[in-house]
């Protein structure tokens, strides 16, 4: 982030938006006095209430993305009280303030509710209550809904709306998903990737998402069939995934949707051969099993080297998948593991680097890439072995509009290669752009 | 993808009403006596008193008791066996020595099992900071870290799956298996540090450890019954040593 001039008046509600890497979150952390002075070079001047931000932290409340990295206590009420205790609030004034904050965000499950048993949306609501309880003059929200399903995100935005209504608190929200916040803010400021910022006038809406052209295929032969597959964690009475039927066909894309906690990611693991179902059976058809040492076995019992060029998986967090120190090595790893020669693996890597625009980063460490670059790389690593089946868990999760469009175009290309795709996603735009069939978990819904 | 592991507040059982620092004091008293005694009678009497407290800690179902104590029972059996097999004594004396050591290990460790079963981690942190002036930075920092443990268990599972998806598994090769575990552990360590850093930033943003004296919303009261609990522990020790001396079995390891 550089060359940003911004003046926010008390009581204003501002949305800071911009592409990933434009420095939105950095600016927000700077406002909260949370930047490590040793961690980078600062230029220019930033004041909150006329003083350096780290001198008025007590009047600032902050909410970050991941609710699990923000809750401290085991009970809901104790967690809201945590911030009040830290600033030395007398004990007799704490519980009324806790109740007021819980009420302000619409958290009605009670103070004694264990925090571990809440949904993501409810956890984030609680985090918001914790930030509001000391009655901050400035409330900073750093992509507070990025890790939530649409229902959870709506719950949190609703809580923010309730909480700021009738308070004089200043609000700064950082999010690249601008439309959802427009009803709650007075101003929209877009940070530009090259530095600087532009102010958008009232009535502004972001440009529409770019959808790729598609050529839907007729349903091809089944590649992977799941018969009444379900999964129950050891020691748990409730199944993580109740018995479900799925068929993945060549040339078709199945979108799996539904609220958090209905077992979408679990289904992805079962289809991808990464976990064995506790009930039912996953069966691979002959086009997939050709060349296997034991073709009668289900995918969960294939050797990893056999799995990698038959079923490709892209995880929600790209970092989980990176195993090497260079982008180029990352792309040749899969082909090498599946038995391709070194020359061929290198050729595959070069081709993917060119096609996905990663060539300038070939020598970079995958962990140092931006979120969007990491996402493209993780898809590319799965494509490197040319698997017939591709399973993707939330591929557009947390991506800005440009990366979103690139990813969707890349996946649309895969549909033309007679592959079967399975997309687990909350993103209605991805479903609209790519899906041939939709499976909604939680409630049985007919395929359109 | 998260397993249903959650560190919840502990279930309220009768023993939960005893202040955690009283429980810790009682444990300290028992520990000293058990470490000094070298006979079979002392740990047997202490153990009987501990077993009598099991219902108060909500440990009544054999399955639940076994789930919480099996590592302890296993190590006690190990200690006893080592003493029988490799001790300097023979015959009945060897068996007696093995039983003594096994009983001591069980009697030493069971109070910890009772404490964990009956004590909410938040109440423990409250009691430690209020009564024993343990640093709030340490007590609540540890509490926050404890919350991350189940998340890391789920993360381990995800990292392992991600490696298999990339074509990396060990097959039947033990060297490859060891390397895979090491690689997964390293990835988990990186993930844990990142998560810990995020948590620390969030706690910072909420004014934790900012130099202002911290208050405590729940408080922690040391009542008369907590005093009686510690006195009870002292009485049990006295009874144990008294019985041992009366039976002529007392054999202190020190002095």
Would you kindly provide a brief summary of this structure?
The complex is a heterodimer of chains A (448) and B (255). Chain A has 448 residues and is of the alpha/beta class. Chain A has 13 helices and 14 strands.
What are the defining features of this structure?
A: 448 residues, alpha/beta, Rossmann fold, 2 domains, six-stranded mixed sheet, 13 helices, globular, disordered C terminus, B: mainly alpha, 8 helices, flat, disordered N terminus, Energy-coupling factor transport system permease protein (chain B), membrane (chain B), transmembrane (chain B)
Explain what this protein looks like in three dimensions:
The complex is a heterodimer of chains A (448) and B (255). In chain A, helix 5 (150-164) links the parallel strand 3 (138-142) and strand 4. A 6-stranded mixed beta sheet of chain A has the order 2-3-4-1-5-6, sandwiched between helices. Chain A has a 5-stranded parallel beta sheet with strand order 11-12-13-9-14, with helices on both faces. In chain A, strands 8-7-10 form a 3-stranded antiparallel beta sheet. Chain A folds into 2 domains: 13-200, Rossmann fold; 221-440, Rossmann fold (3-Layer(aba) Sandwich). Chain A has 448 residues and is an alpha/beta fold. Chain A is built from 13 helices and 14 strands. Chain B is flat, with a radius of gyration of 23 Å. The N and C termini of chain B lie far apart (58 Å). The chains are: A alpha/beta (448), B mainly alpha (255).
Helix content of chain A: 25-40%
Indicate the mean pLDDT of chain B. 89
- Low-pLDDT sequence parts of chain A: 444-448
CATH superfamily of the largest domain in chain A: P-loop containing nucleotide triphosphate hydrolases
Low-confidence stretches of chain B: 1-6
User: Distance N terminus to C terminus of chain B?
Assistant: 58 Å
> Strand count, sense and closure of the main sheet of chain B?
none
**The first-level CATH class name of the largest domain in chain A:** Alpha Beta
State the order of secondary-structure elements of chain B, H for helix, E for strand.
HHHHHHHH
Q: Would you count the extended β strands of chain A for me?
A: 14
C-alpha-based Rg of chain B, rounded: 23 Å
The tally of helices of chain B reads: 8
> Which whole number gives the mean pLDDT of chain A?
88
**How much of the polypeptide of chain B forms β-strand, as a percent range?**
under 5%
The structural domain count of chain A equals: 2
Strand portion of chain A:
15-25%
| Category from helices, strands and their pairing of chain B | mainly alpha
Rg on CA atoms of chain A, Å: 24 Å
Which sequence of SSEs, written as H and E, runs from N to C of chain A?
Answer: EHEHHHEHEEEEEEHEHHEHHHEHEHE
Largest interface between protein chains, with number of residues from each side: A-B, 73 and 53 residues
Protein name (chain B): Energy-coupling factor transport system permease protein
Transmembrane segments (chain B): 22-49, 70-89, 101-118, 138-156, 176-193, 228-250
Main location (chain B): membrane
Membrane topology (chain B): Multi-pass membrane protein
